[in-house]
C-alpha cells in the first residue's frame, strides 16, 4: 500500500446521508417527543410534522435545519402527549337529547331504539377532553422554547450518529482504495508480459489469415507490433494509480465528500472497462490481467454505492 494510503484517516466532518435520533422530554404535564430521520437524496427534501397547536413554529424549525444541512430527505416529527390522564367531562344534557331523539325516531318509524352507552359516548359533544386542543395560544407560548431546544438537541444527536456512521464508511472506503492501488501495481508488473502476449497472439492470427497471400514478414511484424501497442494498457494503469491517490486525498477532506467522489469514481470505472476491453481475446495468458481489472471494477462499483451515502 502506498504511503498516501497508509496515512489516510477519515475526514472529521464527513457525514453519512442516513441517520436517526430522538429526544423525549416532559414539559408542563406533557410528553414532548422529537424524532429526525434521514435518507439519501441529491437535494434537501425536508418534511416537518407538528401537532396543530405547534404549527406556527414550522418556519423557525425548518429554517434552523436548512441552515445546517444542505442535502438529504429529512423527516422531522414532533408529538405531544399528556403525561397524566386527561380531564374527562360528560355533557349530560347533550346525552339526554341524543337518547330522546333515538326513542322518538324509533317510535316514528317502528324501529328498535336500543343502543349501547359506548356508541352514544362517541357521538359529537358527549365526551369532552380538556388538554392540548383547548390550550391554544397559551400552550404555544409555554412550549415554543422547549420545542425548539428539543429540536436542536435531536439535530445534534442525529448529526453525531451520521458522523459515526461516516467514520466506519470512510474507513472501509479507504481499504477499498488500497486494494485498487495494489491491483493497479500488479497490473503494472504484468504489462510488459501482456504486450508481448498481445503481439504474439496477433501475429499468429495474421499468419493464419494471410499466410497464403505471401505477406512480407517484416510488414507482418510491423502490423502486429502496431496492434499490440493498442493493447498496451500502461496509460490506463497509470491513470488508475493517480486516481487512487487523489481519491484517498478526497476522503481526508472535511466537507462535501460525496460530490467530490463522483467524478473520480466515474473516471476509474471508465479506465477499468478499458482495461477489460484490451485484455479480451488474448487467451489464457491474459487471465491475471483480467482478474486484476475485474477486482478494480468491483471495488470501484462498491465505492460508487458508498459515495452515494456520503454528504
Walkthrough of the structure:
- With 311 residues, this protein is an alpha+beta fold.
- The protein folds into three domains: 19-85 and 132-164; 87-130, no CATH class; 167-307, no CATH class.
- 61% of the residues lie in helices and 14% in strands.
- It is built from ten helices and six strands, in the order H-E-E-E-H-E-E-H-H-E-H-H-H-H-H-H.
- It has helices spanning 3-6, 58-66, 92-109, 117-121, 132-135, 137-210, 217-230, 234-251, 257-279, 287-307; strands at 19-27, 30-39, 44-49, 72-82, 87-90, 127-130.
- The protein has a four-stranded mixed beta sheet with strand order 1-2-4-3, covered by helices on one side. A two-stranded antiparallel sheet has the order 5-6.
- The longest helix has 74 residues, at 137-210.
- The radius of gyration is 35 Å and the shape is elongated.
Quick synopsis:
The chain is of the alpha+beta class and 311 residues long. It has helices at residues 3-6, 58-66, 92-109, 117-121, 132-135, 137-210, 217-230, 234-251, 257-279, 287-307; strands at residues 19-27, 30-39, 44-49, 72-82, 87-90, 127-130.
Helices and strands in order:
Layout: H1 3-6, E1 19-27, E2 30-39, E3 44-49, H2 58-66, E4 72-82, E5 87-90, H3 92-109, H4 117-121, E6 127-130, H5 132-135, H6 137-210, H7 217-230, H8 234-251, H9 257-279, H10 287-307
Parallel strand pairs: 3-4
Antiparallel strand pairs: 1-2, 2-4, 5-6
Helix pairs in contact: 2-6, 6-7, 6-8, 6-10, 8-9, 9-10
Amino acid at each position: 500500500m502506498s504511503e498516501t494510503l497508509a496515512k489516510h484517516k477519515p475526514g472529521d466532518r464527513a457525514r453519512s446521508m442516513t441517520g436517526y435520533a430522538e429526544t423525549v422530554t416532559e414539559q408542563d404535564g406533557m410528553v414532548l417527543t422529537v424524532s429526525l430521520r434521514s435518507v439519501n437524496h441529491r437535494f434537501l427534501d425536508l418534511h416537518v410534522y407538528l401537532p396543530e397547536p405547534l404549527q406556527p413554529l414550522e418556519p423557525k424549525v425548518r429554517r434552523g435545519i436548512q441552515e445546517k444541512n444542505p442535502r438529504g430527505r429529512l423527516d422531522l416529527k414532533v408529538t405531544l402527549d399528556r403525561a397524566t390522564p386527561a380531564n374527562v367531562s360528560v355533557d349530560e344534557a347533550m346525552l339526554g337529547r341524543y337518547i330522546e331523539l333515538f326513542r322518538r325516531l324509533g317510535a316514528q318509524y317502528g324501529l328498535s331504539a336500543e343502543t349501547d352507552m359506548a356508541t352514544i359516548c362517541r357521538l359529537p359533544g358527549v365526551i369532552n377532553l380538556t388538554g392540548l386542543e383547548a390550550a391554544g395560544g397559551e400552550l404555544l407560548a409555554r412550549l415554543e422554547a422547549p420545542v425548539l431546544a428539543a429540536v436542536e438537541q435531536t439535530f445534534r444527536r442525529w448529526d453525531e450518529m451520521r458522523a459515526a456512521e461516516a467514520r466506519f464508511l470512510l474507513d472501509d472506503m479507504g481499504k477499498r482504495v488500497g486494494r485498487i492501488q495494489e491491483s493497479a501495481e500488479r497490473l503494472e508488473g504484468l504489462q510488459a508480459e501482456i504486450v508481448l502476449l498481445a503481439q504474439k497472439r496477433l501475429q499468429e492470427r495474421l499468419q493464419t489469415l494471410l499466410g497464403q497471400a505471401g505477406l512480407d514478414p517484416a510488414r507482418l511484424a510491423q502490423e502486429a507490433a502496431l496492434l499490440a501497442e493498442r493493447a498496451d494498457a500502461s496509460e490506463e494503469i497509470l491513470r488508475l494509480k493517480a486516481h487512487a491517490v487523489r481519491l484517498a486525498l478526497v476522503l481526508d477532506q472535511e466537507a462535501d465528500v460525496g460530490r467530490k467522489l463522483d467524478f473520480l469514481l466515474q473516471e476509474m470505472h471508465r479506465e477499468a472497462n478499458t482495461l477489460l476491453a484490451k485484455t479480451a481475446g488474448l487467451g489464457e495468458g491474459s487471465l491475471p490481467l483480467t482478474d486484476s481489472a475485474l477486482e478494480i471494477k468491483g471495488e470501484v462499483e462498491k465505492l460508487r454505492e458508498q459515495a452515494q451515502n456520503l454528504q
